[in-house]
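Ticket #4471: structure output looks truncated?

Reporter: J.K.
Steps to reproduce: submitted the chain below (341 residues) through the standard prediction queue, then opened the result file.
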Amino acid sequence: MRTPAQRALKAGAALALAAGGLFAASPLLTAETAAASPAAGQSPETAAEGQWLTGYWQNFDNGAPVMPLSEVPAEYNMIAVAFADNLDGTPGGITFNLASDELGGYTEEQFKADIAEVRSQGRKVVISVGGELGHVDVTNPEQAAGFAASAHDLMEEYGFDGVDIDLEHGINAQYMEEALRDLHQRAGGDLVVTMAPQTVDFQSPSAGYYQLAEAIPDILTIINMQYYNSGSMLGCDDQVYEQGTVDFVTAQACIQLELGLEPGQVGLGLPATPQAAGGGHQPPGNVVSALNCLEEGTDCGSFTPEQPYGPIGGAMTWSINWDASNGYEFAQTVGGRLGTG
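Returned output as attached by the reporter:
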């Protein structure tokens, strides 16, 4: 596949569709990160336990069914609690406020006990930071330290395994790396670090999420790109693809896979139902086809990778709650393909 720099020379008018397009390329593994990375062919320890089916658990009522964590199907072996709140008085700090009134009186005690039970089953629970409305600034050393310390406090209080970075209004890669490495030092090697960038965030090497992926492959568990609410984007073959198709997923996942991330660090994020997103929903069977295409070179659309990548990291959905409204079709179909649960 062409490098980002080669694609940038060719993209032309398609860059407008890609919301900014591609700039000069930079290698994913620098000398510094290569020295800190696991041995060749290995991913961080937390990503070496098999494929992930990540689902977001809603700490609010937006019309989708509400539920305690104890009711999350076993197929979801990574649960992202949505979302953290800003911690007043601490620059960069985060906290968590359980919306008991919106969740039928679900208590802090029950919530913490459910996290412990889920984790006892070998599943992971992370606190997600951001979302459409979330604004957490990590743009200087003070904010980076505040983020790391407060995130670790939440891990200690609730039993979270780590953090999910879902900031949709831009990130500063330098200081988010500083924060995550600080958190890793506090929490140890079992820390789970996930990210849910939007598609535009990997169209250019100058984008914050792209740069963050360059910087932390040694502590990154998985990136679950949001292949929805997107419009048209460039694939790794310089072609423009429309959301809502298998090609839209596979041709962009190829960008991350060709950049140097381990296949096990790349996941596919799709909405569980049409109501869960403004656009880009696909039947769960399409997610299975995308997995088959990337891993085995079968069930592809017009885009086919030059060679299969073998098992990738898994899949993600927004959200577990919307999936519940559809009889957990996403969990059953995609989880069945991944062998989770």
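Triage note (M.O.): checked the attachment and the full token line is present. The first helix runs from residue 4 to 11.
Status: closed, working as intended.
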